[in-house]
Write a structure and sequence with these properties.
The structure is a single chain. This protein is an alpha/beta fold and 225 residues long. It folds into 2 domains: 111 residues, 3-Layer(aba) Sandwich (D-Maltodextrin-Binding Protein, domain 2), CATH 3.40.190.10; 102 residues, Periplasmic binding protein-like II (D-Maltodextrin-Binding Protein, domain 2), CATH 3.40.190.10. 35% of the residues lie in helices and 23% in strands. It contains 10 helices and 10 strands. The strands form 2 sheets. The protein has a 5-stranded mixed beta sheet with strand order 2-1-3-10-4. Helix 1 links the parallel strand 1 and strand 2.
Length: 225
């Protein structure tokens, strides 16, 4: 029987290496559905097909509240921050401090961020708090989800704001850097088994992501433990 996993887009680039490690422990096939935390939470709430979820902490807590995951299986294992993507070889821009980052955001020609991804929703609140919401939204491209750095690679946007792990899933762009600490929000990711799932091997997958060697291998994809 296939293990069905609902997984944040943040792990799009890292998942092949995780599955390779899992294949050494089990012959069980894995079926991965990627999406935003918001979309996957709704999918898990309305469907009883998933065995495992890999989501941000708010998503995990939402599913726990609705009794869709087994509390004893919740395991935090990685975190990543919000970064900015630019085209390969683009002239350097300064985002090292709060003031220079705001200036770069205001001076860019266009900027992409998601409507329902964790980083996009955070960035929406951030620009409102900073008082630059109208100026940014006037030049923003806002798909519901997905890898918005692809819009930079396609020449449709000058900048893209997203979790670093998602930016690194688009090798045809450069990571300009993380938002400065004063503007940063770190996303913690956890894995859990659903209340629907009876697959004992799901526990093996959860244990795998607690392995220090696996967590170390996530570093090149923009994660830290």
């Amino acid at each position: 029987m296939t293990i069905k996993i609902l997984c944040s887009t943040a792990f799009h680039a890292a998942m092949p290496s995780i599955l390779e490690a899992f294949s050494k422990l089990s012959t069980q096939e894995c079926e991965i559905t990627f999406g935003t935390t918001v979309a996957l939470v709704e999918q898990c709430k309305s469907s009883a097909n998933a065995d495992i979820v890999i989501l941000t902490e708010p998503g995990i807590q939402a599913l726990l509240k609705h009794q869709k995951i087994q509390a004893s299986t919740i395991s935090p294992f990685a975190k990543t921050g919000v970064g900015i993507a630019v085209a390969k070889g683009a002239p350097p821009m300064d985002i090292s401090t709060k003031d220079t980052c705001i200036e770069t955001l205001l001076n860019c020609q266009s900027i992409a961020f998601t409507q329902f991804g964790a980083s996009g929703m955070y960035f929406s609140k951030l620009i409102k708090t900073l008082g630059i919401e109208d100026l940014i939204l006037a030049k923003a491209i806002r798909p519901e989800g997905g890898l918005v750095a692809e819009l930079v690679a396609q020449g449709k946007s000058q900048l893209a704001v997203q979790l670093v792990s998602e930016i690194k899933a688009v090798p045809t762009v450069d990571l300009l850097g993380l938002l400065p600490e004063e503007l940063q929000e770190w996303s913690i990711f956890s894995i859990a088994q659903t209340t629907h799932s009876t697959q004992t091997v799901a526990g093996l997958f959860i244990q795998l992501l607690q392995d220090p060697s696996i967590q170390k291998n996530l570093a090149p994809f923009g994660f830290i433990h």
